Amino acid sequence: MAPKTTKCCAVPNCGKTQSFHRLPSDPNIMKEWMKFIFNEDPDRVSKNLVLCSLHFTWTSENSTK
């Protein structure tokens, strides 16, 4: 049996391990997320990358903070 892995927020130094949001499927919105997370648009992105709920505003889950 493979060991369980714990998901972690992709934002550096966050470390939160619950209430995640997957990357958007829209390429333009995904590009904005990558700029938010990495301060750049990386060449490759893991499809398992997630952000925790701390990085979203209450008014819109399309807005990152």
TrEMBL record:
SUPFAM superfamilies on file: Glucocorticoid receptor-like (DNA-binding domain) (SSF57716)
Signal peptide region: none
Keyword field: DNA-binding, Metal-binding, Zinc, Zinc-finger
Domain THAP-type: 2-65
MF GO annotations: DNA binding; zinc ion binding
UniProt keyword DNA-binding, yes or no: yes
Entries under Gene3D superfamilies matching the protein: THAP domain (6.20.210.20)
Pfam families on file: THAP
Keyword Metal-binding: yes
Name under which the protein is recorded: THAP-type domain-containing protein
